[in-house]
Amino acid sequence: MNKLVDVLSWVAMRCTQNKYLNAIKNAFQNYMPISLTGAVGMLWTNVLVNDHGGLGTVFPLIMDLKIFNPIFEALNYAAISCISIVIVLLLSSEIAQANGDHDIYPVIVSFLSWLIVTPHTIDGLHINLLLHTDSGAIVHTKLSAFVHIPNYIGITLKDFTAQGIGSIYTSLSGLFTAMFVAIIATELYHLLRNCDCLLIKLPSQVSTNQVLSFMNIVPTFLTCLIMSSISYLCILSTGHTLNTNIYNLIQLPLQLMAGDNLIAVLVLYLIISLFWIVGFHGKNLMSSVIESFYRPLLYINMGAFNAGLRGKDIPYVFNSSMFQMFGDIGGSGCTLGLVIYILVFSQRHDNRLVANISLFPSLVNINETVIFGMPIVLNPLLDIPFILAPLISLTVGYFLIQIGFCPRVIMEVPWVMPPVLHGFLVTGGNIYGALSQLLCTGLSFLVYAPFIFIYEKKQRKEEYIY
After folding, report:
1. Which residue of 85, 231, 277, 381 lies most exposed, with the fewest beta carbons within 10 A?
2. Distance separating alpha carbons of residues 142 and 127, to the nearest angstrom
């Protein structure tokens, strides 16, 4: 056990000391209020006031509220379709603060760098359109499907360009580029800003604002020049933009590796549980991994659902909300099943006291009173179900989604949302999501039952001996 504690302590220290993982974790956590705003807009326009598969199909009167849809569509667009812009700002701010730069300028330079590497023209072949049909349905199509130019004219749609930044760069497909630019540009600016030979110094009589402005001239110019050069060299060497290369070579492989890899998720949750049973907050220590790899997958699912995709057309099974739905029922270790068993079957006053105190916190996924009150920490008999319950629940949840019984998770809600209601909301208001989470809550009850029965028998035996 001591060796396990030493190994986990070393891993915990490495996770908490990594500047970039911590910055990414904090950036996505700070983005959560924005994503919840977008989720409300998406829930309104796609689930509630929607007569194409939404509540409006069974309750037509609700469609009288359709006049408010543009309000919620605007919320949805700003929060979900512009995520890359916000992540550039948030991540750059986190890294700048870690570097000791507490002013806004590194964030501005980082955003300028993102604008520099992002294509600002769209040719006619790649202009996407939304076609609104007479029935009210929205069809995603391209301009090339409706405009045909005869070959003898000598020009094609590709010769026509429109100015602007395409949503492919501001939305989820540009997320890793945004993270890459935020990290590189902020670090580069910090490095150049600390080179005395690059600073333009003014006499002490000059105002502070003017001094700072002149000091930032060379670092700002060089940072933007280097980022622009990287982008141009990328196009020259590969024929594709920086965004396309990062998406194809880094973002897409990582998403495919994480989004449907059950083994990787089970190993992740095994590590989280091992941290807990030796007294560390496992979820916090591994949150940098979850936030970096699995929260973006949630936003991709949100974007797909918002685009009208349903069922298995939603890209990924696993994401951060799916983990909360199946792996954290009542908190880490799915301990709500343990609390319910004790309240229903236990005859021991001390255990029932812990369960009574823990019931309400468990319903909002807070379970430190159970983990340290039973205790589960350093208690081998209860450590086993504490490890097994989330692994079994996640595995069952995975297969429920794969067979189509449970919809894919496409929504973000506060982590304190009670189980069952949580499953209903994160699947876009689907009753089968609630039933799936209820089923896994029952499974966690069954996993804990024999172990708590044996544990209480052991407690009685020890009392008899002493």
Report:
1. 381
2. 6
Of 219, 245, 220, nearest to 231 (Cα)? 245
pLDDT at 75 over 70: yes
Kindly indicate the confidence band of residue 39, based on its pLDDT and cuts at 50, 70 and 90.
Answer: confident
Q: Say what the pLDDT of residue 77 is.
A: 85
Can you give the pLDDT at residue 441? 95
Backbone angles phi, psi at 374, to 5 degrees: -65, -50
φ, ψ of residue 455 to 5 degrees: the values are: -65, -45
pLDDT per position as a tens digit, 173-207? 888 899 999 999 999 999 998 887 777 766 665 65
